[in-house]
Amino acid sequence: MTLEIRQAELERVLDPVPAGLTVLAALSGVPEISISAPCGGKGRCGKCVVQADPPPPPSEADARFLTPDQIVGGYRLACTCPAAEVRTVVVSEREETARVKGEIPRFTVPAAIWPRARAEGTWAAAIDIGTTTVAVYLLDTAAAEVVAVRAEMNRQGIFGADVISRISYSEESPAHLERLAGAIRGQLRGMLQQLSRDRGAINTVVITGNTTMLHLIAGVSPAGIGRAPFVAEFLETREYSAGELNLGNQGAVILLPSVAAYVGADIVSAAVAAEMDRTASTTLLVDIGTNGELALSHQGHLYTCATAAGPAFEGACISAGVGGIAGAINSWNRRGDRIVTTTIADAPAVGICGAGLLDLMAQMLADGVVDETGRMESAEGYRDGATSRATSPGASPNDALLAWQDRLTEHRGEPAVRISETHLFTQQDVREVQLAKAAIAAGIDVLCHDAGITPRELDQVVLTGGFGNHLRVESAVATGLVPDLPRERYISVDNAAGRGAVLVLRNEDTLERTRQLASQANYIELSGHAFFQERYVEHMMFPEEE
Ligand code: FES
Hints:
By secondary structure, the chain is α/β, with parallel strands linked by helices. The longest helix is centred in the last third of the chain and has 25 residues. Among the domains are: 89 residues, Beta-grasp domain (Ubiquitin-like (UB roll), Roll), CATH 3.10.20.30; 157 residues, Nucleotidyltransferase, domain 5 (2-Layer Sandwich), CATH 3.30.420. It is 31% helix and 22% strand. The radius of gyration is 24 Å and the shape is globular. It binds FE2/S2 (inorganic) cluster.
C-alpha cells in the first residue's frame, strides 16, 4: 500500500506505508511537508486537517471538530486518520516563512569577532531556536555585521505545538527523540545552506533557545523537564565540534547556558542583549513566545521565573488561533460604528494571532461585550443593555451596538464573536486568554515581590519574544497582562534572544557574560508558590474600566 502526499507543488510517495501509522505520523517522515499539529497528535486541537482519498470512516475527533460538509468532502484529522486506508492525502499549504524577526540593527560600537571565527572562515551564524519559530542570523565575520536573516516555523511543530507535547513525544521511544533532533538539525542545515549559498562555508555557530529546544538539538532526553521536580540534563554552555550535530558548518557549535528547566538560554541571551547585567535601572524582561519567561534586574540581582502561558498567544488552545503567519488577524479596533481589522501581509483571514487577540479582548472589554469576569454577552443581552452601557470616551453607545450587532453570534449554546467569515472567537477562548494573561501578570507580581518592589517601581519593561514584541501596549494594559505604567517605560525589542546570540558571536567576552548571568540568576519556581497562586486568582479578572 502506498500513500501519495501533496502539498501545493510538492508531491511525495511513501512506499510502503508501515502498518498502524496515522497520516500525521506518516507525514512526520517527510520533512518538506509542513502541517500544524498543536496538540501533538492527541486529537484535541482539531488543527491537523487534511483531505483524504478515499476518506476512511470519520473518527470521534473528526465528528467533534469538523463540520458535516467537511466530512462529506473527505476532510479528516491527520492524527486520527489511518494512513493504510488512504491512497492520497492533500495537506493545505501553510505559511512556512515565519514573520521575519527583522533586521538586526548595526551595532554602534565595533566589536571583534572571535579570533577563531575570523581565522577559520568568513561566515558565522547565530541561531535562536524557538518552540514555534527558528531564526538564523548570518554574520560576515570580517565586517562583524549581520548580512542576512532567515526565519521559519520550527519543523518539530508536527510533533506538538508546545514543549510539553514534544517532551512527551520524545519519551515514547528513542526513535522519537532521534526524530525530533533530526527535524531541527535538518531544518537548520537547510537554512544555513540557503543563507551561505554563493557565499562560502559557515564557521562558528552559536545557538540560543529554551532549555527543551537545546536538549532536543543536542539529542539529549528532555524527560526530566517534563515532570516535577523539573530537572534538566544540562544547563551549562555546551560546545560541539563541527559535524557532531551535523549542521553543515565547519567550526564549533556553541549552545548558550540556561538558568533552569523553564528559564532557558533564550532568556539569558535576551537579558544580555538588554544589558540587564550592566544597567542600574530596574528592568523587567517579558518574553512571551510559546512559553512566558520573565526576568527582573534590580540592584545588581537578577530574578527569573517561567509561566506556562504562551501557547494561547501563539494560537494553540484558541479555536481560531494561529501564530504570526500571513492571514492572521493582527489588529482589531472599533472606529465609530465599524470594526476595523488588519491581517498579516493583507492576506485573507486564516485566524487570529496573539496581537490581534489582545486587541480584540481590549475592545470587547471597552465596549462591554465582555465584563471584567470574562463573561461574554449574548447578542440579545448586548442589544438590551446597549443604552445603559458605558463605552469608550466620546463614543456613542449606539456606535458600539452597531459595530458588534452582526458580529455577536452563538457557538454550542454560548455567546461567540464572528471574527471573519469562517472564524469564531468563543466564550471558551476568552477563558483561555484569562488563564494565560493571569499567569504572566501573576509572574510579574512574584518577581517584583521577591525583589522587594512594586510593579510601579519598574523603570523599564522590555517586551520581546515571538508575540511579546508585536503586541500593542495599550491592549496589553487594558487586558491586565502587564502593569499600567507610563507608556514610555515600555520598549519592544524584536527577538532579543537572537540579538544576544549575535552579540556572543561578535565578542567572546559576551559568552562569559551569559555564563555569569545564568549562574547568578535567582530562579523562582512558581508551582506551589503561595503568593503566585493568590495573585493568579486575582488576575483572572480583567481590569475594570475607569
Ligand atoms: S487534533 Fe490532530 S494534531 Fe491536534
